[in-house]
Amino acid sequence: MRHVVIALLLLAIAPLQAAELDKDLADFKREVLEVNKRLLLLEEELLFPADTQVGIYVSLDVGHFFAPDSITLELDGEVIASHLYTEKEVRALRNGAVQRLAVANVKNGGHELVAFVTGDGPKGTEIRRGVNAQFEKGHGRHFVQLHIEDDSAKQQPRFRFRDWR
To answer: Are residues 28 and 100 in the same domain?
Structure first.
């Protein structure tokens, strides 16, 4: 009889302990994710200090005359990023998304940025373009945007860099 009572007590307590273990495990996972997030932010701050950081972004305005396939980005003659686009990413850009292509460390002063863009143009034609810009890096973070927009008069895409200071 005594063994039966002990067995019943253990069976009654086991689900309570399992629920508590599940809660502890969920709390632990949440804490690990939070620590990981903080470590990634710290790593980015250490690798790309604000005073030397330049961020390069791409956006697509309307997109009737162009759908990007790939972009290769050079900063001061060195390739810093290359990206192949999926249909999902092109849809996101057409819906107003802005994509971060690259973050780099640069010294204050003048720099040259070159983007080589390939994609599909009107009536399925392949378009390959290169666009370049000069920018002056000062103190603090610096942002540059590669903006792709439709030129309705020419029915072609227009590529240009915008400097955000």
So the answer is: no
Residues 6+ apart with CB under 8 A from 65: 121, 122, 150, 151, 155, 156, 157
Whether residue 132 contacts residue 114, with contact meaning beta carbons closer than 8 Å, is answered with yes
135 and 114, same structural domain? yes
4 and 68 together in one domain:
no
Q: Where are the beta strands (DSSP E) in 41-122?
A: 53-61, 67-75, 78-84, 98-105, 109-120
Whichever domain contains 84, its CATH number is 2.60.40
Q: What is the pTM of this model?
A: 0.70
Task: Quick: pLDDT tens for 18-44.
Answer: 677 778 788 888 988 898 888 887 777
Residues 6+ apart with CB under 8 A from 145: 56, 57, 58, 59, 98, 161, 162, 164
Please tell me the distance from the alpha carbon of residue 112 to that of residue 133, in angstroms, as a whole number. 6
68 plus 18 within the same structural domain: no
